[in-house]
Design brief:
The strands form seven sheets. The protein has a 13-stranded parallel β-sheet with strand order 14-15-17-20-23-26-29-32-35-38-41-44-46, with no helix packed on it. A twelve-stranded parallel β-sheet has the order 16-18-21-24-27-30-33-36-39-42-45-47. By secondary structure, the chain is mainly beta. It contains one helix and 47 strands. The radius of gyration is 36 Å and the shape is elongated. Helix content is 1%, strand content 32%.
């Protein structure tokens, strides 16, 4: 039994021979040094007792190699909101070399990510942004260390840090949210928003409050309508929307408001709204609704009259905005109760709309409410009975920009007081979206202007441009089921330019009189410049129709293209005190290809394909009119926003909506 042990570490050659003692290496452990690199190591242990001492030598180790410092393979990343008061978090990145520790240094940089300087005491894995960071970008240097040394790696810069917003942000999630939460962070959301049915948290409205609904989460019928408890201001709008970085599931999808194919109850038993911006007669202003998916809206048998049935309703609200919403997957309506006769028969569902305001709204200087960048589809969900929906897309909203409206009997009724309809696609107003059983009983309109005895005069103009109206499709021997037209009725001034209308069995444009609804249109002015239309009846009639009982004050038809077998652009029943028809071109549909025009089925219907097209360079120069709201007349059509940068019109204008590239 040894009473003690002594240790001596030795350096040896690569074969474990020629060993020499390492000075001072006489403990049971030994830390390798640079002088050991290239050698093997062994230990001599000497055991001692009363009878003496005996050495024993270990086997040699493998050859000692140099320890490498950590190597970075994936840069560190930064997560978090780049806003004053928010906290950023750094990841370490991915390393080899088994780092034993990581150090952090946060830096402020210029907006381009250069001229970076260290932030004092910012050496943790998280960093809370301060006012001094506003206007800068942020990056972090992560230094990994092991026995071989230290290696730094630098993250990409963040977006520019913004100051504390003037508004408050509240987060809403029906899944996992609770009104007992604070609501002011993604990790502590409310279940419902203020104004939703059943909301229980103490809340006082501030102008400019933002309500963010979690993506991929659904709110059921019972929480609606949402009646905003306040309104924004011109400098600080209230927002009800979403954020693409906050969602349930593996990828982002919109938050869903689902009425579950049932009517939505309200303050009045007849009301049927998701959003009611007019609750209690308050007429909320400066409110934006954006990024939300509305579905399951039931308009099959509305119990109330006009103004009681809409997904979003802002009667008399001004400067309200609907942006980037999706409205679809709602029950297919049918004729519940008809009024009128023949072509004027319609359904009770026409009282309902996806978005609605007041027909007496006045756009210029009073109401600038807008629906933009949104998709409103009446077509049924996959697996439902075929057919469109018998309600309106957008009613009485003065500004419509870059929307898609499909499968509805009425695309839009603009308000009486003027407005802008720009860059929209309005499609499928009739067959085949609507079954043939409705033949003769369905009168549809893509855009219809009508006053019906309302109190506001047509004091301000309407600007209708860069829209695509694709109507009904031809049902062959069955004859078709609906018109899809833009009706211009009663007084007012109407400017149409750069529009494309195709596949319509009705009238591309009707300059009518709304007889029986307050007509005739004796004080109206209509200006149609550089449009491309298919004649009524899918190319058998004129591209503009009038009404023998209606005399307009002035009508100008210039530089328009018409695909038709009819002899001229406008039909003979157009009547005006001053009528100008100039530089219009009519081409039979069967001759479009031979005359170098796209057909109705082309990606851009009726566009000139070469300089040999008879309308190329043949149009009147209308550049003197390209001012203010009509500036875009001096370029080709954007075709409902699909052509982002259409060519400018040159000294020799082309006939029609397009300008040859």
């Amino acid at each position: 039994s040894p009473t003690s042990y002594a240790y001596q570490w030795q350096d040896c050659n690569t074969s474990g021979e020629g060993c020499t003692n390492i000075g001072g290496a006489t403990s049971s452990t030994y830390k390798l040094t640079a002088s050991d690199v290239g050698h093997t190591i062994r230990a001599v242990i000497t055991a001692t007792n009363a009878g003496g001492s005996t050495p024993a030598t270990s086997a040699a180790t493998s050859v000692v190699v140099t320890v490498q410092a950590p190597v970075n393979h994936v840069l560190p990343t930064i997560t978090g909101i780049t806003e004053e008061g928010q906290t950023l978090t750094a990841t370490t990145g991915v390393w080899t070399g088994s780092p034993s520790s990581y150090a952090y240094q946060w830096e402020d940089c210029s907006t381009s990510g250069e001229a970076c300087t260290s932030i004092s005491k910012a050496t943790a894995s998280t960093y809370k942004l301060t006012s001094s960071d506003v206007g800068h970008t942020i990056r972090v240097i992560v230094t990994a260390t092991n026995g071989g040394g230290s290696t730094p790696a630098t993250s990409e810069r963040t977006t520019v840090v913004e100051g504390t917003p003037a508004y408050r942000t509240f987060y809403i999630s029906y899944e996992g949210g609770s009104e007992s939460n604070g609501g002011e962070s993604e990790s502590s959301p409310w279940k419902r928003a203020p104004g939703m049915q059943g909301f229980e948290h103490a809340y006082t409205h501030h102008a400019g409050d933002h309500f963010i609904f979690k993506g991929g989460v659904t709110w059921p019928n019972k929480v609606f309508p949402l009646d905003p408890t306040g309104e924004g201001t011109s400098s600080s709008e209230d927002v009800y929307g979403a954020k693409e970085t906050w969602y349930a599931g593996s990828s982002y999808s919109r938050p869903v408001f689902n009425a579950e194919d049932k009517e939505i109850g309200g303050h009045d038993g007849d009301d049927n709204f998701f959003f009611d911006l007019s609750a209690g007669g308050e007429h909320r202003n400066y409110i934006t609704v954006e990024g939300i998916h509305f579905k399951g809206f039931n308009a099959e048998n509305p119990s109330g009259g006009y103004g009681t049935c809409a997904a979003i309703y802002f009667y008399d609200g001004t400067h309200d905005t609907v942006n980037n919403i999706l409205f679809n997957e709602s029950p297919v309506g049918d004729f519940i109760e008809e009024w009128g006769s023949g072509a004027n028969k319609t359904s009770e569902e026409a009282r309902c709309a996806a978005v609605a305001s007041d027909l007496e709204s006045e756009y210029f200087g009073k109401d600038e409410s807008t629906v933009e960048n949104s998709t409103i589809e009446g077509l049924p969900a996959e697996g439902d009975e075929p057919g469109g929906n018998f309600f309106e897309g957008i009613r009485a909203v003065p500004i419509l920009k870059n929307n898609v409206i499909k499968g509805l009997t009425q695309g839009t009724f603009p308000p009486q007081g003027g407005g802008i309809i720009e860059g929209n696609r309005i499609e499928d107003c009739g067959y085949p979206a609507f079954p043939l059983k409705y033949k003769g009983n369905l009168h549809s309109n893509a855009i219809e202007f009508i006053s019906a005895g309302l109190s506001v005069d047509y004091e301000h103009p309407y600007y209708i441009y860069n829209n695509v109206i694709r109507g009904t499709g031809d049902s062959g021997s069955e004859g078709g089921t609906a018109e899809c037209e833009a009706d211009s009725m009663e007084g007012g001034t109407y400017y149409f330019w750069n529009n494309v209308v195709t596949h319509t069995l009705g009238n591309p444009v009707l300059l009518g009189n709304a007889e029986g609804l307050g007509g005739p249109a004796k004080d109206a002015d209509g200006f149609l410049w550089n449009n491309s239309f298919e004649g009524s009846g899918s190319g058998g009639g004129g591209c503009v129709r009038g009404d023998n009982s209606s005399e307009w004050k002035e009508i100008q038809l210039e530089n328009n293209f018409c695909a038709s077998t009819y002899s001229k652009f406008g039909e003979s029943n157009i009547s005006a005190k001053t009528l100008t028809e100039k530089d219009n071109l009519v081409v039979a549909p069967s001759e479009l290809t031979s005359k170098h025009y796209g057909t109705a089925e082309a990606a851009f219907p009726f566009a000139p394909m070469s300089e040999e097209a008879p309308g190329a360079g043949r149009g009147e120069d209308l550049s003197s009119r390209c001012a203010g709201q009509m500036t875009s007349l001096c370029a080709g059509t954007t075709y409902g926003g699909e052509h982002e940068a259409p060519p400018a019109r040159g000294l020799k204008w082309d006939v029609g909506a397009y300008e040859l590239e």
